[in-house]
Every structure is written in structure tokens, then in C-alpha cells.
């Protein structure tokens, strides 16, 4: 492991040095309580900055600002092309400050800065640009009626109102963009709470949103803890909808909290995604694909390919190949350009992942490579491959959310039984199928219960492609045209002629 620690550039350093305040009602303000909390660099365990800590009073203020902006402000009544231009401008500002944002994200989350630059920041900018176009394309339709009489009936698609966004720590900037951009295009106003582990990029984004010139109160951004600020948002009667990305356990708590005013919910939750490898594959193609599917972003990905099912005829070659790649991945601090895998986000997450690895050992899994936490600074875990796993093991049943692959062989050609194996999980977020037989690939794709099924690839995402889960992986879809079902209400209008 390369323990070299590098310093951020001048722009990122300047941001770290200035006050980290909330954006509420078009103004940057301190928390009402005056409380702050410490943000830690996962590469070193050292403090990066202090940010304001929101409680229910700050949530009340942010919701009130969003409510005013929706009920009496100009945003929902702007011409669609005007909203489009402002949303597009946010994407352009993200691009303009790309290196600074990448460094902030890398320092805050632990991911390599090279990945943050080409994935998190680039895709965030693209999300605002793509979604800006939908501001001019959301509409209703006319409906012919069969009832006696003459009528003109049509539908209107209107913004749902004030939205509460709660985003996780694994892709802080990108998932903020996933939520803010379509909600803005739909004409909603909003309050966004970042994860307490990674609040920095959202606070920098707040500054760029101000620079873009959105009306006051349209976007309000706060930082705080889930059990205080997050809970207050979910129960708040002034919020019409909650959009949450995070764990299934927290998602269930949000469902209960939202019952007070029956607010709308979209939930993008956990996953335990299978990768099914057939005997006809090109192993040289599968191995890097499977390794990338589980080790990208330190395995802290809801759709990570964490369960590998390979046919017995290719199992050894695939597992050996993935293990070889894993053993050569360069661990290091997030700002080091040579780093291929950074630390996990926190000491708590490292302990969680190491606990799963130890449980896997005790339940009979064989550690092919990795399995340890390197000594020294930072919250690092070696990329790990476990073989000899089976459906009853904890590591196979539960989401680990770290760089741990569970590999199991199969000896079957019945697609229904293979699908049952892949579907043997409470989750249904994603899956991948690896085969040269296009017929087998598409037949199996229809049998797998998951929101995304990739063929000969994994984690292939695009702003135009809907993303979300079946079963306990959530409700609703992010991205693409489908996302607007989450941020709009449909109104039927009928006139007797």
C-alpha cells in the first residue's frame, strides 16, 4: 500500500478553509443551535473541516423557504425554457470547477481523485445537462371518453411540490445531482440533506447553485445526522415527497415516518447483485469485468457485483483471474494519482466489512486473496475474494458494501434453476449475465428479478437509463424519463362541451 499523502490544490484548500454553512432561502446561514461537527479524511483519519449541524429547527427553516418558493415564488411558474437554462448552467459550473470538486469528493469520501474526476464529477454535470432538457418536454395528453355526452378531457403533469432529498455517502455529489436535477426540471422546490460522513461536496454545490442564479428557496442544502435532521425531514408535514438513497433498513424507517401526511416516497436501497457466468464466455473479457463490478469505488456501490456464480467449467479460471487482479490493485490515499482503490468511508464501515470477512471465514468460506485491513493510517481493506460460499452464509445473504466478492460454482443448464439461484435474495437491484449466446442472455434477463440487468458488462449507467430496484431494493426509478413519475402528479381535467 502506498501511504503517500498529498495535499489538495488551491481551490479545494480555499473551500476547506472557509466556513461551511447551510444554504436556506437563498442565504448562507449558521445552524440555529450553533452546533458543528467534524468531517474526517478516510485516508488518514485526521480532521478535514467542521460543518454546521442541523436539527429540527433548521429543517423547519429550510422547509419553510422551499414552501414559500413553491407556493408564491417564481420557480414553478417560470417558462420551461427558463428553468432549462438555469439547470444547464449548474452543469456547466460543475464542469468549470471539476478538479476542485473531485479533490473535495476524494478527501471527503476516500475514493481515488482520478475516479472522482471522470465518474462522480463528470456524470454529475451530465445529469444536470440531460435533465435540463426535460423541463421543456413534460406534458399531458388528451383522452377520448366513452361516457355519454361531449367532453374535452386532458391530463396535466404538475410538480409534486416540496421534496426532501436524503443522499448517501458513497457517491455524495453524483447522487445529489441524480435527485436535484430532475426535481428542478419538474418544477419542484427542495431541501437536500447530505450524509453526515460526506457533507462537503454538497455544500460546495450549494455555492455553485447560488452562482447559477436560481430563485431563493428553490434549493436548500443542510448537513446533519440521519437520526435528527433526516428524521425531522421524513416526518415534516411541509414536505410533499422524500427521495432517499441508502440502506434498506433506513428505508423501512422512512416509510414509517412518512405515514403522517402520506408523503410520496422514492427509495433506492440495498443490493446483492449476482453475476452469472456461462461456460461459453471469453474468460479474458469476464475477469476484468467481474473485478471492476465488485472492486469499483471500494465496493461501496449498491449495485456492486457481489455474488459471482460461474459454471464449474470456467469457475477456477474466473476466480483465479479476479483474485490476481485484486492482489495487484494499488491501495493508497485518495489524492495520490497512482491510487486505484482508496480507503472505506469510515472506521465504522471498515469494522463492518472486516466483521463480514471474519464471519465468512467462520462459516467455511475460503479466502482466495485479501481478507485483511492493512496496518497504518486510514480505513483500508484489501480487495477480497471468498470462494466456497453458499446460499446460507451471512456473506451471501447480507449486503457487505465493501470490496468483498462471494464466488460459487454451478453445474446446470436449466435457466429457471439458474434464475432461482440468482433471485435467492431479498434484494433486486441489479444483475449481470456473461455469455456469448445472445438467446440465453435475453431469456435469462427476463427471468431475473432486478431493476437493471446487464449483458457482458456491469454497472453500465447513463442519465437516460432508468435505475432502481425490485423487492427490498426500493420503490421507483432514478434517471431517464421514468424518474419524473417520482416528481410529478397527474391531474385529469374534463370539460363538458
Break the fold down into its secondary structure elements and pairings.
Layout: H1 10-17, E1 22-24, E2 27-29, E3 36-40, E4 47-52, H2 56-71, H3 80-96, H4 98-109, H5 113-134, E5 151-159, E6 162-166, H6 172-186, E7 189-194, H7 200-212, E8 219-223, H8 226-235, E9 241-245, H9 248-257, E10 264-268, E11 273-277, H10 283-295, E12 305-311, H11 312-328, H12 347-362, E13 366-369, E14 384-387, H13 394-397, E15 404-410, H14 415-422, E16 427-428, E17 430-434, H15 438-447, E18 452-455, E19 470-471, E20 474-475, H16 484-487, E21 488-496
Parallel strand pairs: 6-7, 6-9, 7-8, 9-10, 11-12, 11-17, 12-15, 14-15, 17-18
Antiparallel strand pairs: 1-2, 3-4, 5-21, 10-20, 13-14, 16-19
Helix pairs in contact: 1-4, 2-8, 3-5, 3-7, 4-5, 5-6, 10-11, 14-15
Question: If you had to describe this structure to a student in words, what would you say it looks like?
Answer:
The strands form six sheets. The chain has a seven-stranded mixed beta sheet, sandwiched between helices. A six-stranded mixed beta sheet has the order 8-7-6-9-10-20, sandwiched between helices. α5 runs parallel beside α6 (172-186). β3 and β4 (47-52) form a beta hairpin. The protein is built from 16 helices and 21 strands. The chain has two domains: 10-269 and 474-493, Aldehyde Dehydrogenase, Chain A, domain 1; 273-463, Aldehyde Dehydrogenase, Chain A, domain 2 (3-Layer(aba) Sandwich). It is an alpha/beta fold. It has helices at 10-17, 56-71, 80-96, 98-109, 113-134, 172-186, 200-212, 226-235, 248-257, 283-295, 312-328, 347-362, 394-397, 415-422, 438-447, 484-487, and strands spanning 22-24, 27-29, 36-40, 47-52, 151-159, 162-166, 189-194, 219-223, 241-245, 264-268, 273-277, 305-311, 366-369, 384-387, 404-410, 427-428, 430-434, 452-455, 470-471, 474-475, 488-496.
